[in-house]
Amino acid sequence: MSGMLSRVAVVLLMGIVGLAYQATQPPSSKGSASPDDMPTVSSPRIRLSDGRYLAYRERGVAKNESNYKIIIVHGFGSTKEMNFLAPQELIDELGIYFLLFDRAGYGESDSNPKRSVKTEAFDIQELADQLQIGSKFYVIGVSMGSYPTWSCLKYIPHRLAGAALVAPVVNYQWPSLPEYLTRADFRKKPVKWAFWVARYAPGLLYWWLTEIWFPSSVTGSNSKFFCNRDLHVLKTSSGFPMLNQNKIRHRGLFESLRGDFLVGFGNWEFDPMNLSNPFPLNESSVHIWQGYEDKVVPFQLQRYVSGKLPWIRYHEVPDGGHLIAHDSVLCEAILRALLLGEEQLTYRPSSAMLVL
Predict the structure, then answer these.
(1) CA 199 to CA 13: how far, in whole Å?
(2) pTM of the entire structure?
(3) By CB neighbour count within 10 A (0-12 exposed, 13-18 middle, 19+ buried), where does 290 fall?
(4) Is-contact 32 206, C-beta < 8 A?
(5) Which residues in 45-58 are b (16+ Cβ under 10 Å) and which e?
(6) Which of 152-156, 191-195, 344-348 has the highest mean pLDDT?
């Protein structure tokens, strides 16, 4: 009897070890949708110096007739087709040219196995150069698209005419973030857990995303991470084409999302709160836009970051969530502040509110 139990225990142990090993392996291509289901390349693309292709989309007035040239950087699970709902009347009035692109591994752009915070900035610079939009341009980074924007502020500040970070993700591994601010933040542990799993057990992460998380929680009723305005956007917007169960099953897309997450929440080569003002003569400006009701990134962290970088103009939307870029009124306010220096008191917290 004892011998049989020992053999059963050995078999169970071998099974557990096998499952653990499988969890550490990247997902295989078996079970993925067929190549015919993958989107065909229909957008214009440039070829980068390392051989990768980057897809892009142009909006607004004609490039050669524009007064302002803006590169918009999409967030996690989005693409160049993202919604930045700037009113057409404002676009025509100010003469704005928008350049949107699929970041590495998204949409119709090739993945970058060497992706880093730094490579994101140089992808943007090379895109601007090949499309000849000028020596200086504006950058607007949305959500996870904020880390490429921080990268631009670090590595190519001389190319920037101005920058805005809209609902920017905060990396809990930034050295300057005080522990007292993040100690009670319920988001910190899930991010750390997801980062560890993404790095060391990608097979487990793939299973969890494809079998447990998508599609119901992201677009459904997960009020823990999304306020009511965000949930409405998720249900009605087409700006998140990557975040559904059928798409995430593709190994290439999964690896791109995983890589983006690991870089965005990994150890950066610099601390954003040590950056210098790229516009010391006030020739332009940098802005952070944050929703007070944002359940993805707490406003307390954004207030701290902007407090450490007083040259950043901080705006807070009283009833806004994480998806504030999907509001046309707010998009107009973002553009008027960035391009014209116009301020709205509605979005300006008092100095007393900023004291933590």
Answers:
(1) 24
(2) 0.84
(3) buried
(4) no
(5) bbebeeebebbbbb
(6) 152-156
